[in-house]
Amino acid sequence: MTVHSQGAATSAPQDAPQKSVRVAETPPPAGAKGTSTSPRRGRKSLPEGWWPYLLVGPAVLSMAGLLLYPLVKNIILSFQKVDKIEFIQRKSPFTGLDNYTQLLGDSQFWTVVVRSFAFTAANVALIMIIGSLIGILLNKLGKWMRLVLSMALVMAWAMPIVASVTVFQWLFDEQFGVMNWVMRTLGFSGYEQHNWFGTGFATLVIVTILVVWGSIPFVALNMYAGLTTVSGELYEAARMDGANGWQTFWKVVFPNLKSFFLVTTFLEVIWVFKAFTQVYAMKAGGPDRGSEILPVFAYVEGQSQFHYGLAAAISVLTILMLVIVMSFYFRLILKQEEEQ
User: Fold this and answer.
1) 106 Cβ partners below 8 Å, 6+ apart?
2) Which SS3 state, helix, strand or coil, does residue 160 take?
3) Cα–chain-centroid distance for residue 14?
4) Are 123 and 211 in contact (CB under 8 A)?
5) Cα–Cα distance between 337 and 332 in angstroms, integer?
6) 212: which residues sit within 8 A by CB, 6+ positions away?
7) Residue 261: Cβ-neighbour burial (10 angstroms; 0-12, 13-18, 19+)
8) Segment (H or E) for 5
9) Residue 29 phi/psi, 5° resolution?
10) Among 28, 86, 212, 242, which residue's CB has the most CB atoms within a 10 Å radius?
11) What is the pTM of this model?
């Protein structure tokens, strides 16, 4: 109790509740937390699961416009007769399966098919073997030697295809080629003006060297990157068990990098099977169309022979063959994922 100068007595405990009541009656600010406000009316946000599709949508539409539409038009063209006369007259009559029947009954087509598969198998085998060995070498080299070799691989990989074809044409040139000079220097006779491109098989051998040379860096660098993920304890355990280098590769490296070998082989088969630029820029599929593979065969039939419907049928059959071959690799990849 407090006594004022006039003698009036007031009780302090009675004032506190009143003051608190007055404070409670003061309306809270509009933006204070915990206050209930009426819901704002605006546009509704999209469901959260839709955002990935919206982000991928523009890319899918672009790919459909650039790839799907030409593919559909090419399939339609394969059922039409469009030769030089029809092209000039702007006519495209439907002929059903005549183009496919003509191709399947043509011995030249099957010769090109066998040549394409043999060319692909030889290139992929050489690329995977040599590239894997160089990748293992990168893993064994010291820091500076690894850097030098990696730079050389990247430079070979980055060279444009047409430029590399020009270099190889000069190396194997009949009159001024380096290879003829090397063979004469080593004492071999008959290489004064030897024609290295005399046959289709010889031309494909040179193209194979070019393709392998340009594709090895991809496999080697990926192989080295994969080897860095293999624990050193596994190598030590293999050495303690008395395993040699070959056994270490099959028992340690290959099981841990099996997915790498499958995916890389899958990519190399696709890239080599559709290797058009190297073959056509080297000798345009010659001499006498003896070095044509399926993409070059389709191009020559369409652009040089003016059989556009037949060329479209060749490209469709090429895609079907590639899909069938790749289905085996897809099965291997899916089987490996199930095992893991």
Assistant:
1) none
2) coil
3) 84
4) yes
5) 9
6) 123, 126, 127, 130
7) middle
8) none
9) -60, 155
10) 212
11) 0.78
